[in-house]
Design brief:
It is a single chain. This protein is of the alpha+beta class. The protein is 31% helix and 22% strand. It has a 5-stranded antiparallel beta sheet with strand order 1-2-3-5-4. A hairpin with a 3-residue loop joins strand 2 and strand 3. Helix 1 packs antiparallel against helix 2 and helix 2 packs antiparallel against helix 3.
C-alpha cells in the first residue's frame, strides 16, 4: 500500500454552538485524515475519532460560542486543536466518581493521546491532543511508535505547550 505524502497538512472547520455538531465533526476529522491517505492504522483513527468527540463536546458544553477545530499532520503525528472564544480557566483532568455523569473526558484524552495540553489564546483557550501515525501495538511497539512515544508529554498535562 502506498501513501500519497508525508508532507505537512492542515484543515479547519468552524463548529457551531450545538452539541449535535459533535458527531458530524468527528466524522469530518476522520474523513479529512482518510482523504490525506495517512499511514494510520484503524486503531489510531478510532482513537482520533473518540478523542475528537471528547474535546469538541467539552468545548461546546462549556462555552456558548462554538469552536474552531484544526486537524493537522506533521509527517509523524495528527494533531487536533479546538479553540473556543470563552476566556475562562484552562481545563484540567477532573476526578470523577463511579456515579458521576461527567468528568472523564480529559482523563481519557490524557490516557490515550501521545501528548495533549491547553493554552490561553487572545480570545479564549485552545485544547489540543496528538496521536501518532505508524503501526502501534500494545504488545510489540513498532520503531515508529517507540520513537513517537519517546517524546510523549508526561501524564500530568503541560498547559504551556
Amino acid at each position: 500500500m502506498s501513501f500519497r505524502t508525508a508532507a505537512s497538512k492542515f484543515s479547519s472547520l468552524r463548529v457551531p454552538p450545538d452539541t449535535g455538531a459533535v458527531s458530524s465533526t468527528r466524522r469530518w476529522v476522520v474523513a479529512v485524515v482518510r482523504d490525506w491517505n495517512l499511514p494510520l492504522v484503524e486503531d489510531t483513527v478510532e482513537t482520533l475519532e473518540l478523542l475528537t468527540g471528547e474535546v469538541i463536546a467539552n468545548a461546546l458544553v462549556h462555552t456558548d460560542n462554538g469552536c474552531e477545530v484544526t486537524v493537522s499532520w506533521d509527517g509523524t503525528r495528527v494533531r487536533l486543536e479546538a479553540e473556543d472564544g470563552e476566556a475562562s480557566a484552562l481545563p484540567r483532568v477532573a476526578s470523577a466518581g463511579l456515579e458521576d455523569e461527567s468528568g472523564r473526558g480529559l482523563r481519557m484524552v490524557d490516557g490515550l493521546a501521545q501528548a495533549w495540553g491547553c493554552r490561553p489564546t487572545a480570545d479564549g483557550k485552545a485544547v489540543w491532543f496528538e496521536v501518532c501515525g505508524g503501526l502501534p501495538s500494545a504488545y510489540r511497539p513498532s520503531p515508529q511508535r517507540a520513537a513517537c512515544s519517546a517524546s510523549h508529554v508526561p501524564s500530568s498535562p503541560s498547559f504551556d505547550h
